[in-house]
Amino acid sequence: MRENYLEEYYSFLRFPSVSTDPQYAEGLGACAQWLVQKLTGIGLETQLVPTRGHPIVWARNQHRPGRRTILIYGHYDVQPPDPLELWDSPPFEPVLKDGYVFARGATDNKGQILSHIIGIQETIEQDGELPVNLHLVIEGEEEIGSVNLGGFLSENRDALSCDVAVVSDTGMIARGVPT
User: Fold this and answer.
1) How much is the average pLDDT of 154-175?
2) In the chain, how long is the greatest CA-to-CA distance?
3) At 70, which helix (H) or strand (E)?
4) Do 43 and 124 meet the contact criterion of CB atoms below 8 Å apart?
5) pTM score, whole prediction
6) Which residues are catalytic?
7) How far apart are CA 90 and CA 43, in angstroms?
8) How far is CA 81 from the centre of its chain?
9) Which of 108, 113, 169, 177 could connect to 74 by a Cys-Cys bridge, CB 3.0–4.6 Å?
10) What average pLDDT does range 96-102 have in this prediction?
11) What percent of the chain lies above the pLDDT cut of 90?
């Protein structure tokens, strides 16, 4: 990630968005709002979709006939940081060591989804628009089994129709080898 995006990445990682523990509900909500602001700020039509649990962030560009439609899926919730004694630094205070960022959610899944978002942002800034129709679906319940995602997808099946779905979740087997 470019140096000018590092602080933005750190801001995203600082949200304690642990979906398995009700004491973190406020952190989940704040993280979802941060995503809405980020995606709206880069020019996407964005909405916060309430569920029985944690909200889904749904963003899209202006869809145009004749273009392929891409759906990018990710999640903003993270695993609990326990056991805390195994951390060398606070889990929600990112640290850069040896070229790697250490924080809860850095590789599952905040780093990946933010990389997609920044790529989208840079394409819009450079070209004025995206060459595809795009949907971003970013949920807050992946770590608890995506209990409300199925209902959201069913309810919005036609609107979310796409040619390709992209999921980038967790680490890579090796540099240059997509997982």
Assistant:
1) 89
2) 54
3) strand 69-75
4) yes
5) 0.93
6) 77, 142
7) 34
8) 19
9) 113
10) 94
11) 90
